[in-house]
Amino acid sequence: MPGTSRLTVSHHAAELALAGCAALAWYLTFSGLADMSTGPGTMGLGLWGFLAVWALMMAAMMLPALAPLTSTYLRTIRAVPSRRIRAIRTTALVGGYLLTWTGFGVVAYAAATLAGLLAEDAPDIAPWVGAAVLVAAGAYQLTPLKDFCLRHCRSPMAFLLHVSGYKGRLRDVRVGMYHGVYCVGCCWGLMVVLIAVGVMNLAWMAALTVVIFLEKTWKYGPALSRITGVALIVFGFFVPSHPELLPGLSMTAGM
């Protein structure tokens, strides 16, 4: 069964490469961005600089949870004899996926800008807005739409059937973007929480990465999603009396 062995090695190699990319993104995040303020706003960055940082953060946070899909998707190109072509197609898949998250980064930039303005111009209102954001993000974790998107991310076979008709040189980019849309639908609430606690809050980044990974890969992931939602709602009730809990909406943090 040498063909099967080579395919298995190919799957593992792709997963290891994905884990390596995520590890590199984490290293670059810690080494190059750890000194940035966790306070309100866009860390002093313009749109393009923010999007570059956001793409790096998404690579660190989201790529580990993408490994099961990548492994499954490789089975659809197992007839391709060239390792180089398989590598190019896998890279295109990941690139399309990150492109979708970079597009969401435009929304994140606008939200971070508004958070900075709110913290500076209306510091008494900011904690209440932050509490509402946490409650809304937590409530979304309990909705049917969250469950629908999470099922897609956890069971990619129906997704693969949908994209099997994609043709052309950019088909793998389209596949990555298509999956990315569902992933944004699954995780956008957690990313809004990240803006509220400070875009470069590395401790929250790490915690949310673990939650996202377990949601998508652990057999109790759906239950964890609901527990996370309830925890965010409870956390939100503490924010008005303790605004320092949300550095992304408090001028006292890192200023």
Structure at a glance:
With 255 residues, the protein is mostly helical.
How would the blueprint of this fold be written?
Elements: H1 2-33, H2 47-74, H3 83-121, H4 126-140, H5 144-154, H6 157-163, H7 171-197, H8 202-217, H9 221-238
Describe the structure.
α1 (2-33) runs antiparallel to α2, α2 (47-74) runs antiparallel to α3 and α4 runs antiparallel to α9 (221-238). By secondary structure, the protein is an all-alpha fold. The protein starts with a helix and ends in a 17-residue tail after the last helix. The longest helix is centred in the middle third of the chain and has 39 residues, at 83-121. It has helices spanning 2-33, 47-74, 83-121, 126-140, 144-154, 157-163, 171-197, 202-217, 221-238.
Characteristics of this structure?
255 residues, mainly alpha, 0% strand
Gyration radius, rounded = 19 Å
Order of helices and strands: HHHHHHHHH
Largest sheet: none
How many helices? The count is 9
In terms of DSSP E residues, the strand content is under 5%
Secondary structure category: mainly alpha
DSSP strand tally: 0
Global morphology? globular
Q: Assign a percent range to the helix content.
A: over 70%
- Detail the poorly predicted runs: 1-5
Q: Would you tell me the overall average pLDDT?
A: 86
Distance between the termini: 62 Å
